[in-house]
Amino acid sequence: MAERLVFHIDVNSAFLSWEAVKRVQNGEADLRLIPSCIGGDPKSRVGIVVAKSIPAKKYGITTGEPMAMALRKCPNLVVVPSDFEQYVKCSKAFKAICKEYTPEMESFSIDEVFLDMSGMEKIYPDPIKTAHEIKDRIRDELGFTVNVGIASNKVCAKMASDFEKPDKVHTLFEDEIASKMWPLPVNELFTCGKASASKLISAGIKTIGELAKADITELKRLLGDKTGIQLRNFANGIDDSPVKEEKEEAKGYSAETTVDDNLDSFEKINRMLLAQADIVTARMRAENARCRCVGVTFRTTEFKNKSHQRKLPESTDVTDKVYEVAKELMIECWNGEPLRLIGLSITDIDRDGFEQMSFIVDERKEKMKKLDSALDSIRGKFGDDSVKRASTVEVGKRINRKFKAERKNI
Ligand SMILES: [Mg+2]
To answer: Of 177, 254, 296, 407, whose CB neighbour count within 10 A is largest?
Structure first.
């Protein structure tokens, strides 16, 4: 196989930078230059640090820590709420620039992409120069910085972009692995979670280099077969996973909420899901679109992310239909652990086809459609907050009991 060339592009302190861009445009202080963070409601002193500036990091503030603790470390900390619309706007803008350089781009998260630059040497003979060009264009055209990692596979490119920040280009080619990656602590290896890291450290494996040379039988015993093999491969810079280019159609609508009080019951979760279903389907209906896939994403208090999605037998734009599927998905994949974040997404968007007609006329569906369009037109007049469905406030308890019962039957 020909040598591959992969770029990993990662926005530096994404949410904070994106909020800063907005504020600088309005003539306000640059959050990146002062101790600041994105967090929960600054007045309530609850919630967690979602992103922090480099000056805030100097006070020892860490992402994920409770806001009260962060404020004790730095009483002058400027705390700003999150603005998801702004994040989506900035995310789209930087991905559009990246996409100009190769047809094969994988969106890895809201602020990260992989670019497969293999076989592009005729157009871009010098990868390091090209990486600098992408990085500088994003900085100059959009006002925020990224790091670019260059390597022959995704894992090494991802590791490279994590070296010194911000606004830097790093390489991690095969002959650089021993000098650049092996001295790093083992917990910094991509996909090495807290639990794996502490098992490795207590077995005396403290650096990525030690992991790379560790006995595979011992690693399998410590971490299980799959994780043991994967982490040892990654430590040796071995990874042949492809850059997965997604179809344009994968785009959709999503809502995501980070909560201050843990979501620990179906009652709370369902209330949030209904509110989110309401928001995303209203946006979709405004564009005369329908979806064929519903997904839920959540994050536990230990920062584990999980997502689950389902294709629908026919496309829909009905809030309650989307809400019902989202609830089912949660029943299937939530184990009861407290959640910090929950999101609902609708994808596989159908923009011009007609909704497939069921053979049975679904009266309830027709009623729901009427309710939806009535709510949408009120929203159009008075803004999104003017209408809240009764059930987002009231029927949670009943739903929760019902779902507890249903869970037992699975
Ligand atoms: Mg980032």
So the answer is: 296
Kindly give the distance from the C-alpha atom of residue 402 to the centroid of ligand 1, in angstroms, as a whole number: 40
| The pair of three-digit structure tokens given for residue 228, joined into one six-digit string | 């043991």
Is pLDDT of 96 > 80?
yes
- State the Cα–Cα distance between residues 290 and 282, nearest whole angstrom: 11
Q: Which of 79-93, 96-110, 323-337 has the lowest mean pLDDT?
A: 79-93
Give the pLDDT band of residue 246 (cuts 50, 70, 90). low
User: Can you tell me the distance from the alpha carbon of 14 to that of 110, in angstroms, rounded to the nearest whole number?
Assistant: 9
pLDDT greater than 70 at residue 333: yes
Backbone dihedral angles phi then psi of residue 392, each to the nearest 5 degrees:
-65, -20
Distance 12 CA to ligand 1 centre (A): 5
Query: Rounded to an integer, what distance in angstroms lies between the CA atom of residue 271 and that of residue 326?
Result: 11
Q: Per-residue pLDDT averaged across 184-192, rounded?
A: 93
The last residue of a domain, from among 36, 60, 82: 82
Report CA(104)–ligand 1 centroid distance (Å): 20
Split into its structural domains, the chain has a count of 3
Residues 229 and 338 in one domain: no
Residues 392 and 256 in one domain: yes
Output the CA 271–ligand 1 centroid distance in Å. Answer: 30
The enclosing domain of 359 has a CATH number of 3.30.1490.100
- Rounded to 5 degrees, what are φ and ψ at 207? -115, 165
* Domain that residue 49 falls in: 28-82
Residue 128 lies in a domain: no
Which helix H or strand E contains 227, and what residues bound it? helix 225-235
Q: Model confidence over 342-395: pLDDT tens digits?
A: 999 998 888 754 443 434 445 556 666 666 766 665 555 444 444 444 444 333
- φ/ψ bin of 38: left (φ > 0), alpha (ψ from -120 to 50), beta (otherwise): beta
* Nearest-5° Cα angle at 325, 319 to 329: 140
| 161 alpha carbon – ligand 1 mean position (Å) | 9
Answer yes or no: is 120 within a domain.
Answer: no
Q: Does this model's pTM top 0.70?
A: no
Q: Are 217 and 277 contained in the same domain?
A: no
Catalytic residue check, 112: yes
pLDDT band at 280 (very low <50, low <70, confident <90, very high): confident
Instruction: Please identify which of the residues 19, 106, 112, 256 carries the catalytic annotation.
Output: 112
Residue 62 lies in a domain: yes
